[in-house]
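Translate structure to sequence.
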C-alpha cells in the first residue's frame, strides 16, 4: 500500500525528547478486523534509552504518536521488526518505509 502521508516535520518532533526516539518511519497501513485502519510505525531509540514497558508508558507513546498523525498506530522497535522478518522482507520495508522523523 502506498504510504505517502503528508506530515509537518515539527509534528512528530514533540516525542523524541520525552521517549528518547532517534527515528520514526511508517512501514505499513492495514485494516485489522474489528479495529479498523492501523498504521505500523518502526522506531529506533537513542543509546541509553529502553522501550517503555506496557504498564510504564508504551501505550502512551503509541497514543501520542497516533494523536499527532490523526490515526491509530502500532509501534515496533526496528530490531524487533528485523528479528521477525526475513532479510529480504526487512530490506523491502526499509526501501518503502516513509521516514517521518530522524535526528
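Result:
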Amino acid at each position: 500500500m502506498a504510504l505517502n502521508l503528508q506530515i509537518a516535520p515539527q509534528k512528530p518532533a514533540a516525542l523524541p525528547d520525552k521517549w528518547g526516539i532517534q527515528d520514526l518511519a511508517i512501514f505499513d497501513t492495514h485494516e485489522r478486523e474489528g479495529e479498523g485502519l492501523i498504521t505500523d510505525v518502526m522506531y529506533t531509540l537513542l543509546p541509553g534509552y529502553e522501550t517503555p514497558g506496557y504498564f510504564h508508558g508504551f501505550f502512551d507513546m503509541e497514543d501520542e504518536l497516533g494523536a499527532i498523525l490523526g490515526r491509530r498506530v502500532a509501534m515496533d522497535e526496528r530490531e524487533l521488526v528485523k528479528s521477525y522478518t526475513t532479510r529480504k522482507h526487512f530490506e523491502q520495508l526499509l526501501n518503502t518505509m516513509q521516514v517521518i522523523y530522524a535526528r
